[in-house]
Amino acid sequence: AQKVTQAQTEISVVEKEDVTLDCVYETRDTTYYLFWYKQPPSGELVFLIRRNSFDEQNEISGRYSWNFQKSTSSFNFTITASQVVDSAVYFCALSEARKLIFGAGTRLAVHP
Amino acid sequence: DTGVSQDPRHKITKRGQNVTFRCDPISEHNRLYWYRQTLGQGPEFLTYFQNEAQLEKSRLLSDRFSAERPKGSFSTLEIQRTEQGDSAMYLCASSLVLVTSGSYEQYFGPGTRLTVT
After folding, report:
1. Which of the residue ranges A5-9, B59-63, B98-102 would you say has the lowest mean pLDDT?
2. Which residues of A touch B89 (CB under 8 A)?
3. Which of A51, B15, B40, B55 is most buried (CB neighbours < 10 A)?
4. Residues of A with CB below 8 A from B40's CB?
5. How confident is the model at residue A96 (pLDDT cuts 50, 70, 90)?
6. SS (H, E, C) B60-112
7. Nearest alpha-carbon partner for A22 in A79, A85, A60
């Protein structure tokens, strides 16, 4: 069965610190997609990134970067120089082109 | 470009009552999904539509739940004889799935928070 594990329940950092959110997944499919979503206090899930299983290149978007390693079934998310506005719950998700299977989320608190 | 909208945003109902939620997807999206999220958990898949056809339902979707997407536009999710365990955030999402591009990111609405007393 497909599964996504986000072992870190809560992380607390001080502004400008770098922080990495871990995501480990399980699937038997050879073709799959991985996602990260942000859920700020307002509650709406915001799409951040999609990565397909054939593309192991790391991606950087501003202060955000993602590290996909098929060998360890991990898709980790790093925020560089964190800001208070980054405070939210972050979800990693796995798809086989239909439904998304979400992890339990990591709550990130960035303090000034 | 408007995003996914859901109505109502909050619903308080008494146990045993029926409730109906509405979702309006992004206009050009052909897939529409319903998820349920309880406190401290990630969203859990309930069902999805490809245009007007309901293609998959989760085991979480008991007989008291029914979803429709007439004409492949908006969707409704009805819960009959609500129970306290139905209290959750109900999220709707939509996506554009093309044979050629395989774009699968789902865009979520703000959710409907249901409280059953």
Report:
1. B98-102
2. 43
3. A51
4. 104-105
5. low
6. CCCCCEEEECHHHCCEEEEECCCCHHHCEEEEEEEECCCCCCCCCCCEECCCE
7. A79
Average pLDDT rounded to a whole number, residues A94-112: 90
Structure tokens at B27: 């206009």
How far is the C-alpha of B107 from the C-alpha of A108, rounded, in Å? Answer: 22
Tally the C-alpha atoms within 13 A of residue A80's C-alpha that lie toward its C-beta: 7
Residue of A nearest to B103 (CA): A97
Q: Which two tokens stand for residue A67?
A: 């590290």
Contact between residue A37 and residue A95 where contact means Cβ atoms under 8 Å apart: no
Interface of B with A (CB under 8 A): 33, 35, 40-45, 48, 55-56, 58, 89, 91, 93, 97, 102, 104-111
The pLDDT confidence band at residue B102, using thresholds 50, 70 and 90, is low
* Residue A97 scores a pLDDT above 70: no
Which residues in chain A have Cβ-Cβ distances shorter than 8 Å to B32? Answer: none
Amino acid letter for position B108: F
CA B4, CA A16: separation in Å to the nearest integer?
33
| Residue B100 banded pLDDT, cuts 50, 70, 90 | low
